[in-house]
Design a protein that fits this description.
The chain has 313 residues and is α/β, with parallel strands linked by helices. It folds into two domains: 167 residues, Rossmann fold; 73 residues, 2-Layer Sandwich (Alpha-Beta Plaits), CATH 3.30.70. It is built from ten helices and 14 strands. The strands form three sheets. The chain has a six-stranded mixed β-sheet, sandwiched between helices. It has a four-stranded antiparallel β-sheet with strand order 2-1-4-5. It has a four-stranded antiparallel β-sheet with strand order 12-13-11-14. Helix 3 packs parallel to helix 5. The protein is elongated. It starts with a strand and ends with a helix.
């Protein structure tokens, strides 16, 4: 699939500020974002997610490396590159004394787009802002202000939408509305790049996932492939009678006996064949252990993320 964002060798080092030395915020990032996908960028606080987004959007200057946005260098051809991007930052910055309608319309005009009241009306209705169109921003709730930020980002019909922690601190209703809108935008051809602390949202929404830790991009993978490659499964055997310890005959299976003595847990890679399970069940029976039920549980994206980041720390 064709890339709409191509990042090569991107690095950012902040100058030393006594008593601290220089800080390397990004370390030679290479990343291609595919046209029309939802790409989730995950990482702990301070990992470099916002720095990366701000460099792509032309807000922060990179120390080295290049960024192409739909084929346009975001430094040499800043306006052409930036006009293709809509950005919803974490912080709520907008004109408190302006009305919703005027601030969203003004954002469209900033990028040279002709007035299009019908389009602005559609955005406001999609974001449940139509009833608030004549309200001043200062009178809105935090959730409504977040909706206005999204409307502003969409006003000039960008091909790429960056959502930096878009659902942080917002209500469940807005979160649901926002993800419905994101799906519609993706279906219309808009590329979505998002960061989120709600990893279950990335698991539900994203086509591909990138994990960044301490300024380094440690993995980029299709979500389903990542979960298959790095995920693990647990098989839990609920025993007919409690046991005090795991019999020596089962030592080769690396089992865990849970407190209470009635659950045996076997953990295995999701891409491993099932011959190990067949052998385990045969050996459990040979050891005279009966079980009443068995359950399997697969790793979530959050568990994989925690595992990846903890290995880098």
């Amino acid at each position: 699939m064709q890339s709409i964002i191509a990042i090569a060798g991107l690095a950012k080092t902040y100058a030393p500020r006594p008593p601290m030395g220089a800080f390397e915020a990004l370390k030679s990032i290479d990343l291609d974002v595919r046209r029309g996908e939802i790409f989730a960028l995950l990482g702990p606080n301070g990992a470099g997610k916002t720095t990366l987004i701000n460099i792509v959007c032309g807000i922060v200057t990179a120390t080295s490396g290049t960024v192409l946005v739909d084929g346009h260098d975001n430094v040499a051809e800043f306006r052409a590159a930036r006009s293709r991007i809509g950005l919803v930052p974490q912080e709520l910055h907008t004109d408190a004394f302006e009305t919703v309608w005027k601030t969203v319309s003004f954002s469209r005009g900033l990028w040279g787009k002709p007035a299009n009241p019908a389009f602005i009306e559609k955005i406001l209705k999609d974001l449940s802002l139509w009833e608030k169109k004549d309200n001043r921003i200062m009178t809105l709730s935090g959730g409504m202000k977040r909706r206005v930020m999204i409307a502003k980002a969409l006003a000039h019909e960008p091909q790429i939408l960056f959502l930096d922690e878009p659902t942080a601190g917002v209500d469940v209703e807005l979160r649901r509305d926002m993800w419905a809108l994101v799906r519609r935008l993706r279906d219309s051809g808009v590329t979505i790049v998002l960061t989120t602390h709600y990893i279950q949202e990335a698991e539900e929404m994203a086509d591909r996932v990138g994990v960044i830790s301490a300024g380094a991009l440690i993995v980029v993978e299709d979500k389903t492939t990542l979960m298959r490659k790095l995920g693990r499964k647990q098989l839990t055997l609920h025993l007919h009678q409690r046991i005090e310890s795991i019999p020596a005959a089962l030592g080769a299976h690396a089992l865990e006996l849970r407190p209470g003595g009635q659950d045996l847990v076997y953990t295995y890679d999701t891409n491993t064949d099932r011959s190990g399970i067949a052998a385990l069940l045969q050996d459990v029976g040979a050891a005279g252990i009966r079980f009443t039920d068995l359950q399997t549980k697969e790793s979530s994206l959050e568990e994989i993320f925690v595992s990846l980041v903890s290995k880098r720390s």
